[in-house]
Fold:
Amino acid sequence: MTTTAPTTTTVLDATDVTMRFGGLTAVRSVDLTVNSGEIVGLIGPNGAGKTTFFNCLTGLYVPTEGKVSYKGTVLPPKPHLVTQAGIARTFQNIRLFANMTVLENVLVGRHTRTKEGLWSALLRLPGFKRAEEASRERAMELLEFTGLAAKADHLARNLPYGEQRKLEIARALASEPGLLLLDEPTAGMNPQETRAAEELIFAIRDKGIAVLVIEHDIRFIMNLCDRVAVLVQGEKIVEGPAEVVQADERVIAAYLGTPFEGAPGQEEAAEVAAAEAHSTTEGDDK
Ligand SMILES: Nc1ncnc2c1ncn2[C@@H]1O[C@H](COP(=O)(O)OP(=O)(O)OP(=O)(O)O)[C@@H](O)[C@H]1O
Ligand SMILES: [Mg+2]
Structure:
């Protein structure tokens, strides 16, 4: 049935993931897959469990129940092993080494792909210097790719907010992932920066890296994603292509409250379509 490339494989397979904190079930029996070549969105109101789900995927939390596989192998719940396996992420609250340069931040992101460890990188031991030479070219490539090459020598803390978010992405890419998880990559960005972030994520996908992205900016999500999953109070209530999800009454009711601009409810959509068809046949629309 599918007309997409026959080489499509399942990159991420999360099955029945549940995360409880004491009496609170933050994530409840969530299944989610991400296939190669896909950009998948994860949306839901504040506190819906989106970040907690990311934390379960990346080994920051050990899920109370369920399992997470990457390219057919079950992941151990240890962040460094997850990164090594091929999953990279950015954080909702930017986590950069503020007093290191832009280039150094990306070099640190390469530590899982070099023989030198993180501490060696942070302490700038001699081994790191050698590895740094070998990694520098790749890091500069990534800075070119993310549009930060001109700022390679700037301190991370001096970058404007939008560029700090981009640098987090560059650093995540430095671990050469097959799957990139982005937690609110456009939070705090202006519309122009958001557009640029969209382009960047498409370019990442085009490089063969699957993407799972959490975002509150619905327009951004709907433009970007092949598929969108909706979490409400820890449960996945709907999943499907963006155009299906944005017209789903349950999403509008449970998540948005009222229909958002550009995403009318089904009734309204039908009314608009009927009105358009009518005016087209009459040829007197303004
Ligand atoms: N470490 C923790 N201990 C206890 N409760 C937690 C912990 N982490 C998250 N929670 C709770 O789990 C629920 C889900 O939080 P989470 O941060 O995953 O939501 P979110 O969907 O990412 O929200 P937002 O859109 O605001 O970022 C919330 O009720 C939160 O308070
Ligand atoms: Mg969150």
